[in-house]
Automatic annotation (TrEMBL):
Subcellular location: Cell inner membrane
Stated role: Component of the type II secretion system required for the energy-dependent secretion of extracellular factors such as proteases and toxins from the periplasm.
Modification after translation, per record: Cleaved by prepilin peptidase.
Residue ranges of every copy of the Type II secretion system protein GspI C-terminal domain listed in the record: 44-118
Entries under InterPro entries matching the protein: N_methyl_site (IPR012902), Pilin-like (IPR045584), T2SS_GspI_C (IPR003413), T2SS_protein-GspI (IPR010052)
Keyword Transmembrane recorded: yes
Entry GO terms, CC: plasma membrane; type II protein secretion system complex
Annotated GO biological process: protein secretion by the type II secretion system
Protein name per the record: Type II secretion system protein I
Keyword line: Cell inner membrane, Cell membrane, Membrane, Methylation, Transmembrane, Transmembrane helix
Membrane topology of this protein: Single-pass membrane protein
Assembly notes: Type II secretion is composed of four main components: the outer membrane complex, the inner membrane complex, the cytoplasmic secretion ATPase and the periplasm-spanning pseudopilus.
Pfam families to which the protein is assigned, alphabetical: N_methyl, T2SSI
Length: 121
């Protein structure tokens, strides 16, 4: 015969079980947030790459070599605004110029940087 005292859980056992469950749920929420941030970052990098590659192709297809110096452009992809800084540098060979494109998001955080060499035809 069991006594009423041996049935059920004590308050401490229930509190420990709740604490373990809360810790596991908090870890799950943090992992979910990390996955969401990573997906957004991948989307931003993809859109920034499109902007940067467009700027580099524009420099390559121009009838004249781009002038040495910096210029800024705004690029919008999928309703996301990016600021581009296009830097053109001389190389040791005067028939070539190096073109760097730095892409920043709306908060001015760097997202991507691409470079190419443009030659004289």
């Amino acid at each position: 015969m069991t006594t009423p005292r041996s049935c059920g859980f004590t308050l401490i056992e229930v509190m420990v079980a709740l604490a373990i469950t809360a810790i596991a749920l908090a870890a799950g929420v943090q992992a979910s947030n990390a996955l969401t941030r990573n997906a957004q970052r991948q989307s931003d990098v993809l859109l920034a790459r499109l902007c940067a590659e467009n700027a580099l192709v524009q420099a390559r297809l121009a009838p004249q070599m781009p002038p040495v110096g910096d210029s800024t452009q705004v690029c919008e992809q999928a309703n996301t605004r990016f600021d581009l800084t296009v830097s053109t540098l001389q190389t040791l060979n005067p028939n070539f110029r190096r073109v760097d494109v730095q892409v920043r998001d709306a908060a001015q955080w760097p997202v991507l940087r691409l470079s190419t060499v443009v030659g004289r035809y």
